[in-house]
Design a protein that fits this description.
Blueprint (H helix, E strand, L loop, with lengths): L2 H27 L26 H5 L14 H23 L5 H7 L2 H27 L4 H18 L3 H25 L7 H14 L3 H22 L11 H26 L1
Helix pairs in contact: 1-3, 1-5, 3-5, 5-6, 5-10, 6-7, 6-8, 7-8, 7-9, 8-10, 9-10
Subcellular location: Cell membrane
Organism: Candidatus Kuenenbacteria bacterium CG1_02_38_13
Family: Belongs to the peptidase A24 family.
Length: 272
């Protein structure tokens, strides 16, 4: 196995994680993420390049801003590390599918479609991490994120499709089933159980996963949501009436299905 390429992918993931943190903060304060230098969110002091190295700076600075000494949110190193781990895992999983012995050789064995699928899974995961963190922190799913992600998902999946007309039908069907499912809950509860952002996220999940994977994603999301919810209620950190960051669970379900959906379907069919 070639560890060099492994490290390159990991560092690439750290950098994307750092970009996601920056994006989330700037979406929150409503500032363009294309312009302006990085700064401390607390004292607004501009950051030097060495204050801004993913993961490393956080530990070198002992988790505090160099200028105002106030604590840097754990979100920063956590998102960087998780992004790097997920990006590396996606890389290993996709490159493994191409067959071969050495990691660096396998990359050359990959067809264009296989490399495109690797890129697609990275891009989908990028959007899912933003939705996961933003909903967890601010209890909101931004249309500014889900709508562009829907376009990107359709373009990737239609490019990868064997038959485009068949594929667009099933992608739209999957999106409508999940989006419609949330829309009904939204209307019945008058927006109490579920937010408007969840409806968009339902469509996005369908466009990313297609049919029948969307059903697996919903199922996994509800299981994860219930387990975490019961855990939080039992540990008295939340009550049954607490607000739930549902988008966080939906993005977990979508990611799991994106990675292992076919495997889950196969296992399920074997049980029948
Ligand atoms: Zn500061």
């Amino acid at each position: 196995m070639n560890y060099f390429i492994f490290c390159v992918v990991f560092i690439f993931g750290l950098t994307i994680g750092s970009f996601i943190n920056c994006l989330i903060y700037r979406l929150y304060i409503g500032k363009s993420f294309l312009r302006g230098r990085s700064f401390c969110p607390k004292c607004k002091h501009g950051l030097a390049w060495h204050d801004n190295i993913p993961l490393l700076s956080f530990f070198m600075l002992n988790g505090r801003c160099r200028y105002c000494r106030r604590a840097i949110s754990m979100q920063y190193p956590a998102v960087e590390l998780i992004t790097a781990i997920l990006f590396t895992a996606i890389f290993v999983l996709e490159v493994e599918r191409c067959g071969g012995i050495a990691m660096d050789l396998m990359l050359f064995n990959c067809s264009f479609a296989q490399l495109l699928k690797l890129l697609r899974n990275w891009v989908f995961t990028f959007f899912l991490i933003i939705i996961f963190v933003y909903d967890l922190r601010y209890y909101l799913i931004l249309d500014k994120v889900t709508v562009p992600a829907m376009m990107v998902a359709l373009v990737f999946n239609l490019t990868l499709a064997d038959d485009m007309t068949v594929s667009i039908f099933w992608l739209l069907a999957a999106g409508s089933v999940a989006g419609g499912f949330f829309l009904i809950q939204f209307l019945v509860s008058k927006g109490k159980w579920i937010g408007g952002g969840d409806i968009y996220l339902g469509f996005l999940m369908g466009f990313m996963l297609g049919w029948p994977q969307i059903l697996i994603a919903l199922f996994v999301s509800y299981i994860v949501g219930s387990v975490v919810g019961i855990g939080l209620i039992l540990s008295k950190r939340k009550t049954i009436k607490s607000e739930v960051p549902f988008g966080t669970f939906l993005s977990v379900g979508t990611f799991v299905t994106l990675m292992r959906g076919d495997w889950i379907i196969e296992k399920y069919l074997n049980l029948l």
